[in-house]
Amino acid sequence: MCGIVAYIGHREAYPLIIKGLKRLEYRGYDSSGIALLNDGLNIYKKKGKVKDLEEVLLKENLSSHIGIGHTRWATHGEPNDVNAHPHYSASRNLAIIHNGIIENYSSIKKNLIKKGHIFYSDTDSEVFIHFIEDIQQNTGCLLEEAVRLAMKEVVGAYAIVIMDATNPSQLIAARKGSPLVIGVGEKEFFFASDATPIIEYTNEVVYLNDYELAVVRDGELTVKNIDNILQSPYIQTVELELEAIEKGGYDHFMLKEIYEQPRSVADCMRGRVNADNGLLVLGGLRDYVDKLAKTKRIVIVACGTSWHAGLVAEYIFEELARINVEVEYASEFRYRNPIIKEGDFVIAISQSGETADTLAAIELAKSKGATIIGVCNVVGSSIPRATHAGAYTHAGPEIGVASTKAFTAQVTVLALMAIAVARKKGTLHEDTFRRLLFELERIPSKIETVLKTDEKIKIIAEKFKDARNFIYLGRGYNFPVALEGALKLKEISYIHAEGYPAAEMKHGPIALIDEEMPVVFIATKDSSYEKVVSNIQEVKARKGKVIAIVTEGDKLIPTMADYTIEIPAMHEALIPLVATIPLQLLSYHIAVLRGCNVDQPRNLAKSVTVE
């Protein structure tokens, strides 16, 4: 959630760190701060946006070649200047930035107070740096050793970077459960929560593993594990273009990412699908497709939009591969003592690859003998390292907090997995297999067709921007689409919205229907078409306002609905890849018309890296 940026080297640190914090704004935050070594260790921090911090620093001396910066999303302590990071140690010789939660901070704090420590914030992070310094002073050890000893005592998740006023050529970082990447340059090093603040300066990075401690001193990087054993840092090349994290002329990242979906879906299939030759290759699953075809049970764990992608996958796997699939909220999975056996497969889905609840679910399932398959977007993130195998979505960086291209990319990859497994298992006829591949290759052009309805969707958005509630309804494959459409609307426009299976309407939601209630139907021509037509008639009989996503050429539903948006015809299993596009656009335009911050919705963070 929080954003970390730090630098040590020959450049001026302040402009680099401030720019990096702005690149991390998409992660969600309520305050920001920076620490620099210039005539002492100086911390500057401010509640609000990074631009608010910049304004208070206009007259400060900010020249320094070492610095740490942070954007905070409040967990312990309300959002204010005092609770913002960085935090000083008791002597004010050390400063820390921290992403994560120290679960046992309260007991540590009580012991430190007994020793005379005074705390100025309500944060667990200030306790952490006081604790590190206390160890250092009581043992006489080096700072890096004090950090390592503290790591053995604290419980929870953390990514930290520490600066020492007495050692201006040193930065120390550590990680457990929260992401931290180190950019490697020529005698300079960059620290960040992800690669977006770094890519402008270097594409050579080291991803710290859990319980690892990194020390940069005198232009050299050393990595040790928690047992003080030297590690050989693996330097990876990040395939990320600077243009990919810029708006590229769009008003918002979310709109840019909606319009990127023809390309991102195609990128998901590039090198994997060749319909002309009847080829479907998933290199990351090569050694596991046979085992997947033989398993009797797949459990999908995910959160938010990724959970909706998992629901689509449930329908596809069960229909094509005839394997029992269960879809679990990762946040609940670990707390209900789930029944997982050897031979079960768990598919973990996460855009960032850092979702804390999903990582915890993976560890629980692994401990019970399950085989774990990961589906995520960010190369080098924690989930690919924690799983037995998997597939990247290759959607490119997604900056908007509300996931758009991540959803369609996840559904694409999951569909490829289901088709591959079904073919291996023999439950998919060769003609259907070939047809699905051809249909998949046409999805990007069909998304482009739907994007051309943008102006019509703007008009619909204008009609409903002041609505207080929405209901989204769909059946079969379109039920998860309804859930995702409702989530997008409430995430960015703050309008209450609920998604339901259309068949459940008469079991409660129909009581809400009146002339003020907009009801969005995903009403494409599929196996449930006639049933959905009946549901639309029920809503119209109660004077509800109907917005319907329909198949191109439909003559019936347009006579009943108040507004219709057409999408091209396609195989039923692939409809979610296209039907979700107009719902993303509808949510976007309603939010813009309401004056909402589309890319940074209130209270939300892009990557939920703490529980």
TrEMBL record:
Molecular function per GO: glutamine-fructose-6-phosphate transaminase (isomerizing) activity
InterPro entries per the UniProt record, alphabetical: GATase_2_dom, GFAT, GFAT_N, GlmS/AgaS_SIS, GlmS/FrlB_SIS, Ntn_hydrolases_N, SIS_dom, SIS_dom_sf
Entry keyword Translocase: no
Listed CDD domains: GFAT, SIS_GlmS_GlmD_1, SIS_GlmS_GlmD_2
PROSITE patterns xref list: GATASE_TYPE_2, SIS
One Pfam family of this chain: SIS
Keyword NAD recorded: no
Gene3D superfamilies the UniProt entry points to: Glucose-6-phosphate isomerase like protein, domain 1, Glutamine Phosphoribosylpyrophosphate, subunit 1, domain 1
Reaction equations catalysed: D-fructose 6-phosphate + L-glutamine = D-glucosamine 6-phosphate + L-glutamate
Positions of the SIS domain: 288-427, 460-601
Segments forming domain Glutamine amidotransferase type-2: 2-219
Enzyme class: transferase
Keyword annotations of the record: Aminotransferase, Cytoplasm, Glutamine amidotransferase, Repeat, Transferase
EC number(s) stated in the UniProt entry for this protein: 2.6.1.16
Complexes and interactors: Homodimer.
Matching NCBIfam families: glmS, PRK00331.1
Function text: Catalyzes the first step in hexosamine metabolism, converting fructose-6P into glucosamine-6P using glutamine as a nitrogen source.
Family matches, as HAMAP family: GlmS
Name of the featured protein: Glutamine--fructose-6-phosphate aminotransferase [isomerizing]
Organism name: Arcicella rigui
